[in-house]
Amino acid sequence: MYEHDVIVVGAGGAGLRAAIAAHEAGADVAMVTKLHPVRSHTGAAEGGINAALREGDDWELHAYDTMKGSDYLGDAPAIETLAKDAPEDTITLEHWGMPFSREDDGTVSQRPFGGLSFPRTTYAGAETGHHLLHVLYEQVVKRGIQVYNEWFVMNLAVTDEPDPNDRTCHGVVAYDVQSGTVEGFKANNGVIIATGGPGQAFDHTTNAVSCTGDGQAMAYRAGVPLEDMEFVQFHPTTLPSTGVLISEGVRGEGGILYNEDGERFMFEHGYANNDGELASRDVVSRAELTEVNEGRGVNDEYVHLDMRHLGSERILDRLENILHLAEDFEGVDGLVEPMPVKPGQHYEMGGIETDENGKTCVDGLYAAGECACVSVHGANRLGGNALPELVVFGKRAGYHAAGKDLGEAEIETGYSTDVEDETETELPITPGEAGIEPVSTSESVATDGSGQVAGGDALLEQAVGAERERVERLMEKESGTKHADIRSKLQNAMTRDVNVFREEEGLKRALKEIQECRELYQDVSVEDPSRTFNTDLQMTYETRNLIDVAETITLGALVRNEFRGAHWRLENQIRDDENWLKHTLISWNGGKPSIWYRPVILEGEDKTYEPKVRSY
Ligand SMILES: Cc1cc2nc3c(=O)[nH]c(=O)nc-3n(C[C@H](O)[C@H](O)[C@H](O)COP(=O)(O)OP(=O)(O)OC[C@H]3O[C@@H](n4cnc5c(N)ncnc54)[C@H](O)[C@@H]3O)c2cc1C
């Protein structure tokens, strides 16, 4: 068994920033990660990081844009913290060596991004995330923080009191990809989950194969609610054949969208008369699909993104990476022809419910980054707002898990363990319907329903034993269903029915198919007999996580019968503030999901953000 004060699961932007902070606070910190840190998906971030750095801009404008972008489903205290802390945390990155692009006078460049009232997206070419990872990893190496590379975390070691608010996390169980052994990692102070998003629940996504929602599913099974999972961002400019992202930076620099008839449809068809291509992502994605659905798409599938008029000098200076992506994945030369683009799954706005210090309802368990929902993005994330979230809330989670008091910064959000005022809702369709039961009720608690065991060591040993047994069961099974078949059924259902446009019938169909995936999973087997580098085994674990996460996305979407941000519903195409100004929370409760709601916090430090009609 390995032992540290703080264990950070995941080494993307959020995990690295959290580890640095925990180390600064004096903790013995270690990172456990299934990928080498610089291979984390943060490396794919192209466009930039939002921070109010310039004269004429201020944190209040950033907060206002973020609240409006969230379609009034973000919590004001968390949004204000993001906007206030982002400038200092971005400057810290610069001091650590982040090679931000610069103007001729030497000041850091900032570009316009969708939904922003000021050009506040700071960037390093079109490779911002790549540089961010390298800069943060350098700091981790410099501090001598231990990194357990290519260790796949399978489960959390959490006690199993009946009320999740009484539970404690003592560590994690992980599989060493290189040796095939399963070991426990004890955390004396806390575990921080920073495992990124669940994009692989969809088959057309900008997310890497590693984005499988592992941390969200593990926290969920340990009793922590997942918040606002129905809000999935579909990015308007992904390459049709692969889902590879063409950064919003292209539109930020002046790129234009055209339909098959050569119309600049964002203006000519009235989707966003003021901001056009730089409207918020949900608005542009719906506009593109409407063009395609109404017969004005190119090849009935996509639209064109044209940047030729920017000139080769500017493109090569600021968007060179985009040229390579278009050429390599679509065979298109962006200097001489427009690029084909269509919406694709990009970001999960919801996640593990946390307060502003990353704390969950389980003692000793924290979360930060895309896997978490501190509630800054609400129903729609603004481009460039995920990277500041990683550094602002990653840092806070790291300090807090190490036991450092953040003084006045320690403001709680609406996170509450008291559910008296919160409404619980009947599920419209239950996992038991159609004769399909959840995978196993014994999966409901991270320790596998083992009962109370004295002390963290014993609990961890027990959790390790349970995972070793699970591995043996999976490996020894002679034949069964392949994880890849289950995963592809799941991805097809999600992409078909839980996409940009949603309706009750499709959502119910998707939910039924997700439940069928659960049933199929009971027969899953691992074909690869090797004990080392067994990606078959790892992906079998990941597929189980995707099933759990996909179910919460779909359930939340089915019950929320309104149109807000990225969540459009055929049956009710208006935002319904009277009934739906509230967060969805889904808990794994006694072997099945239960759903309940908590009001959105619109009161900031000095003002209340009154919901307004959201137009661009
Ligand atoms: C193509 C693309 C471009 C983007 N561009 C921008 C942008 O310009 N600006 C912006 O603000 N946002 C952008 N985003 C969003 C943003 O980049 C991501 O939300 C963010 O980087 C996620 O960071 P993270 O640290 O939460 O997760 P990740 O960077 O995905 O890291 C997750 C880590 O968890 C580890 N992990 C996962 N599961 C396990 C497990 N079971 N066991 C052990 N380790 C595990 C992985 O190894 C990895 O180290 C973009 C997203 C994409 C997909």
Automatic annotation (TrEMBL):
It is found in: Membrane. GO terms for molecular function: succinate dehydrogenase (quinone) activity. Its EC number is 1.3.5.1. Pfam families: FAD_binding_2 (PF00890), Succ_DH_flav_C (PF02910). Its cofactor is FAD. GO terms for cellular component: membrane. Keywords: Electron transport, FAD, Flavoprotein, Membrane, Oxidoreductase, Transport. The active site is at R281. Residues 417-438 are annotated as: Disordered. Residues 487-616 form the Fumarate reductase/succinate dehydrogenase flavoprotein-like C-terminal domain. InterPro entries: FAD-dep_OxRdtase_2_FAD-bd, FAD/NAD-bd_sf, FRD_SDH_FAD_BS, Fum_R/Succ_DH_flav-like_C_sf, Fum_Rdtase/Succ_DH_flav-like_C, SdhA/FrdA/AprA, Succ_DH/fumarate_Rdtase_cat_sf. Belongs to the FAD-dependent oxidoreductase 2 family. FRD/SDH subfamily. This is succinate dehydrogenase. The lineage of its organism: Archaea, Methanobacteriati, Methanobacteriota, Stenosarchaea group, Halobacteria.
